[in-house]
Q: What sequence folds into this?
C-alpha cells in the first residue's frame, strides 16, 4: 500500500462515518444541522466513500504490479 492509497482509504473511512452519522441523525427526527444540510452531507458522502475506496484499491493494485 502506498501513502496515496492510504490517504484515499482514510478519506473513504471518514466519509463512511459521515454517512452513518447522517442516517442516524435523519432517523432521530430532529437532526442537529437540519434536514437539508444533513441530507446534503449524506448525498455527498455515500458516493465519495465508494469513489475513494475504489481509488485506494486501484492504487494499491497498480503499486503491486509495478
A:
Amino acid at each position: 500500500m502506498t501513502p496515496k492509497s492510504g490517504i484515499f482509504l482514510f478519506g473513504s473511512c471518514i466519509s463512511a462515518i459521515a454517512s452513518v452519522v447522517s442516517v442516524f441523525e435523519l432517523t432521530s427526527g430532529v437532526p442537529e444541522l437540519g434536514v437539508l444540510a444533513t441530507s446534503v452531507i449524506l448525498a455527498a458522502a455515500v458516493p465519495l466513500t465508494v469513489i475513494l475506496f475504489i481509488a485506494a484499491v486501484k492504487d494499491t493494485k497498480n503499486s503491486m504490479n509495478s
Remarks:
- The CA atoms of residues 11 and 34 lie 24 Å apart.
